[in-house]
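Input:
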Amino acid sequence: MSAPRILIVGGVAGGASCAARLRRIDESAEIVVFERGPYVSYANCGIPYHIGGVIEPESKLLVATPELFRTRFRIEIRTGHEVTGIDPAARTIAVRNLATGAVSSERYDALVLSPGAVPVKPPLPGLDLPGVFTVRTIPDARLIRAWIAERGARRAVVVGGGFIGLEMIENLRQLGLEVTLVEMLPQVMPPMDPEMVAPLHAALREHGVRLALGDGLASITPEEGQTLGVRTASGAVHPADLVILAIGVRPDTTLAKAAGLALGERGGIRVDAQMRTSDPHIWAVGDAVEVVDRVTGLPTLLALAGPANRQGRVAADAICGRPTRFGGVQGTAVCGLFGRTVAATGQSEKALRRAGRTDFGVVYLHPNNHAGYYPGAARVSLKLVYRIPDGRVLGAQAVGTDGVEKRIDAIATAMQFGATVFDLEESELCYAPQFGSAKDPVNLAGMIAANALRGDLPVTPWEEVGRAWVLDVRDADEFAEGTLPGARNIPLAELRDRLSELPAGGPIDVLCGTGLRSYNAVRLLRQRGFDARNLAGGYATWEMRRGL
Amino acid sequence: MSAPRILIVGGVAGGASCAARLRRIDESAEIVVFERGPYVSYANCGIPYHIGGVIEPESKLLVATPELFRTRFRIEIRTGHEVTGIDPAARTIAVRNLATGAVSSERYDALVLSPGAVPVKPPLPGLDLPGVFTVRTIPDARLIRAWIAERGARRAVVVGGGFIGLEMIENLRQLGLEVTLVEMLPQVMPPMDPEMVAPLHAALREHGVRLALGDGLASITPEEGQTLGVRTASGAVHPADLVILAIGVRPDTTLAKAAGLALGERGGIRVDAQMRTSDPHIWAVGDAVEVVDRVTGLPTLLALAGPANRQGRVAADAICGRPTRFGGVQGTAVCGLFGRTVAATGQSEKALRRAGRTDFGVVYLHPNNHAGYYPGAARVSLKLVYRIPDGRVLGAQAVGTDGVEKRIDAIATAMQFGATVFDLEESELCYAPQFGSAKDPVNLAGMIAANALRGDLPVTPWEEVGRAWVLDVRDADEFAEGTLPGARNIPLAELRDRLSELPAGGPIDVLCGTGLRSYNAVRLLRQRGFDARNLAGGYATWEMRRGL
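Output:
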């Protein structure tokens, strides 16, 4: 048997990982990577920060060069080569050299598609005007930097408040531009639950970003004086010298579709657990494929670099006949914005509701990132979503300034093993005063949820607040500074002596600052025969829910 | 049945947690806590930082006061009361009021012992001299602060380089004192493997701390001019105005022993999974008890606040007849020193060797804490110990300046579920350029170990270096700056063309900077028929092993 000829379409993340892995497994294979852009293996996650001048020079974004692939891996990289068609029957691809226009046909034994995703560009007027950009590649970064420098751009409109949108906002502010965010939804970071990103809305406002939330893009028009006008559904017009479209991405399935490969229900290339497409000689990896969500078991799209790299490795193993399996994704992600961090893993509450599920509970907590008595302690707001009745963790979200992503990493790792909230109660995590607490926020999240599941601490869903008598057990001075509508105040320390003031029959929703005193109050009251329930996360949760 | 009377001996960590939990479960129980010291529920983990003036004022160390226990929990706290004996048959304890000397007898239905640990004070001359201190309680902190202030102490000797010793060193330097560390072992942080704490030795030296490692304390003698002389086994004398004994702690089993309770083989109070002692009406929690190590299945002692709190909860549940179980410990711990962080979970290599085990492999890696192209990336050195042949993770240690403890937290969480290195390969962790890498250090650790286990990347144990031909595949300029004794240099990019320079028969140990290029070289060479093996973690590991 002669050495196999393996062709890879797309040389970033998944494709580059696959190529390197192939070489490590099979020294004899001929491996050729076709990339339509000028670069392979670049850090597209860093592009917003390069635009902002945080990452300099541009060459830092180049994780590996074609030269390195050639000398280190004996892998041939053909940049500036676009694959225009696949003939699965003949096992050939058609390749166009973008510099010369020449088209050639290349034979393969195995083909790996790693075309990535393309920015969503809805069919609205003006999206192709000069000054309107998407942010995906190094050439995109060059165009944006040049436009800002040459035009002296002062006002930017960012359309879309997801990862890329927020990172671009931070970096455009870093460059001194005025920034307006236009987002169709009433919140930034669409994958997360709205109340969990309220602190980001506050951070954006603090940093002078104008927010046009709940107001979708309608059109972009040229205005006088070389500016643009960004019109929204509400009729508002936001003037801009520069518009960033960060509405989202969709799998680039052009080639796959044309070749007759099966697509999945979410519109990505369909692959099996070995990343093989519907054609036995073609694999696909990265942002273009549909993968299984570990939590729901359903197909999903997830355009993130970590899973793309793992998929590249799996495809390489599979091509070389090794046993392998891509276990799915859970959607772990993090975003930094003006010193805040927001992170999540698994399912959000809204995703579960959208899927029609009601078999879950939700708790909130707002502990410090480390021992409160050590200087610099700061709040981490955490939301845990778990299955009823078995307590399996379905998802977690967190926001704060420090120690945020490490809690999500711990919960994500636990979820990998199908953890329950009872497991999180017991996790043994690093503790010293400057790093955590003897009861880590992860433990506390597990304890609160476990208390709810065991019936010790029934939780009233926040959306049902107002139906029951609300008891605020904080001290009088805290109560005076603000509470829930209609709440009565009996400080916890006085509660045992003032039980006669409580309604004997109906339910009582108990509130405190972050949920600890209310926990003690609920336990006390339930043992005295009251139908007391906890408002999870207390007034801090209320403020996040109100602060949208 | 009348309300049970539950007495708790010791009001810190485990005892305080148990008391609060008892009240939440049983509103009717009579709960009394006896504490010989003046405070309950204080943050003894913060004491070194209070001595250094980082945590001020002292009252910040008081997590909860007797008054709070009384008003919030209706729990009676008797500070300044020492329990002097237990009569298990009569179910009574003898209590001495330390202020009045009065002794009383107290009846219990259930008794919880949470006496904690006491600092080890070997029977050496001079350890009771004025100016010699242990660091455990708030009164200890007061004495040390007063001594430094009143004597104008300038020179301190810290005996013992564990957690407390290192934290004391940092804080004494913070106060401007000259510090010498006397440690019997040739390393600080005795639970960790020596090479993993080499960066701490460097940090200590950088901060002007004199190290007397491998040189145990022999005696302390009064010297002229109100100073002390700390004599070591080698005969050296270190002058000191202040000596901190931080040699370690041992379980305080005085009461338990006198009451005839069974002790375990490690000298702690023996308890079952419900934290019950050999007497059916007596439970014990915290630093005084022996617990099961989750990794080895063997009894162990672990004086840490997190497990103590969990044990307090378990005991409370057990006393109230609820199903509960303490699942054991894995020894997750972290320590900060002069901006470095060192953290560990599970078994160290030396602990396994001491136990006679040989069924394990070891890998090292030195990735950045976050994407290298984002400013501020810093190395995290990680060591993973895993069982052969199934890959079960036995332990992990890490050291660096940032992002250290979050990797240990993720691995600790995985170990809770019996994770293998194959699981770590797949963990889906938070990634954005300022937080991590698409292949997180945790993933990389799993991949490297998995490569070794699959036979793709055999690893030469570092202690065997020198037996085989050593090939350094770094570039010539790196090689010129330092390499292993006898190593030859063929840069990876030239390797395929220079295979004839390699020895055909015997083994070849391959080295690079941190282990990535050597991985590729080993794969290349093995496929060409060479018996190539990897030196895990490359020259960075060599430097740590040399830097002791």
